[in-house]
Automatic annotation (TrEMBL):
Protein's name according to its UniProt entry: Protein kinase domain-containing protein
Species, as recorded: Rhizoctonia solani
Pfam families assigned to the protein according to its UniProt record, in alphabetical order: PK_Tyr_Ser-Thr
Matching PROSITE patterns: PROTEIN_KINASE_DOM, PROTEIN_KINASE_ST
All copies of domain Protein kinase, residue ranges: 75-304
InterPro entries tied to this protein: Kinase-like_dom_sf, Prot_kinase_dom, Ser-Thr/Tyr_kinase_cat_dom, Ser/Thr_kinase_AS, Ser/Thr_Kinases-Pseudokinases
Domain of life of the organism encoding this protein: Eukaryota
GO molecular function: ATP binding; protein serine/threonine kinase activity
Length: 318
């Protein structure tokens, strides 16, 4: 059997294991046979509460994620500066001088170890201008961190607050291109929001890894879907064009959560009254029947058409 075929067999087995993980099943992780990889310990790893960060790190580095522990300048890794959903984000530095972002988990337990295994492997497979790159992973302060490029302009929410002249439609185009790419892999993001999208020093939007959850996500047994991503994309677009979080009229998050769970849709904001095509598109993203929502590809086609329309007003907030 050729080396290439062996590699494909290994990755097919890994994909099968990851599919089982997504279904919440208990699995055995077998160290994959990858040509050229030096594997010191051939073993099967049962993911339980006894599995350590080092165990997961050793397994993942035999797949595709480079182990950057020795390349990380640990003396120049600061404390948490941002909440990243499942984990915190710190700024660090590699030995070659590059500034990087380090995403870690708040705590290590069985559920989070399984989530980490899925996120690392899935993220390592992506390659798109509008999806944040994964350099690798490292062992830092007793846990695993994901190492990615540092985004000078921070997240999209902060960037738009500081740059009211930014072309908002261009940002929506870039984000939709990234989501369309992920859905075609196929991959479900599950956490699309302005605070989880970052902006490079070149002004490029890059999608990173409860408020914008779709109504069906509050029901027992619900799982992340493309349709839920589309709902969140519509809410993110609303924030992009208005500079305000959806349902900002509510004083407390629980009120917004209840409104979403009941199927309440946002009302048309003043910024979009003169953009009926865009407002109609966003409303389609929030359809209470998930399979009636447009695909990312369809949304991309419509926003590109809007971008080429010379008769619309400026897509800035100034």
């Amino acid at each position: 059997q050729s080396p290439g075929a062996a590699s494909e067999d290994s990755r097919a087995e890994i994909d099968s294991q990851l599919s089982a993980l997504r279904k919440g099943q208990k699995i055995l992780l077998k160290t994959p046979q990858i040509p050229g990889a030096v594997v010191q310990h051939q073993k099967r790893l049962l993911i339980t509460s006894a599995v350590t960060s080092e165990d997961i790190l050793a397994y993942l580095t035999n797949i595709r994620c480079p182990d950057l522990t020795q390349s990380l300048d640990q003396a120049n890794c600061g404390g948490p500066i941002q909440d990243g959903g499942f984990g915190e984000i710190c700024q660090g530095r590699l030995n070659d001088g590059r500034i990087v972002a380090l995403k870690s988990l708040r705590e290590i337990n069985r559920k989070r170890l399984k989530y980490l295994a899925r996120e690392l492997y899935s993220w390592s497979k992506t390659e798109h201008d509008n999806v944040l790159e994964l350099f690798g992973l490292a062992y830092l302060r007793g846990g695993i961190v994901m190492v990615s490029p540092w985004m000078e302009f921070g997240n999209l929410r902060d960037y738009l607050k500081q740059n009211r002249s930014a072309n908002r439609l261009s940002m929506m185009v870039q984000i939709t291109e990234g989501i369309d790419y992920l859905h075609n892999i196929p991959m479900i993001h599950g956490d699309i929001k302005a605070a989880n999208i970052f902006v490079s020093k070149e002004g490029v939007a890059k999608i990173g890894t409860m408020r914008w959850m779709a109504p069906e996500m509050f029901r027992a047994g619900s799982a992340h879907t493309r349709e839920a991503d589309i709902y969140a994309l519509g809410m993110t677009a609303l924030e992009i064009f208005t500079g305000k979080v959806p349902f900002s009229e509510y004083d407390h998050d629980i009120q917004a959560i209840r409104a979403v769970a009941l199927g309440t849709k946002p009302t048309c904001p003043p910024e979009l009254i003169r953009q009926p095509k865009l407002w109609t598109l966003l409303n389609k993203c929030w359809d209470l029947v998930p399979h009636e929502r447009p695909t990312a590809k369809h949304i991309l086609s419509e926003v590109l058409e809007l971008a080429g329309d010379d008769n619309v007003d400026s897509w800035t907030l100034v």
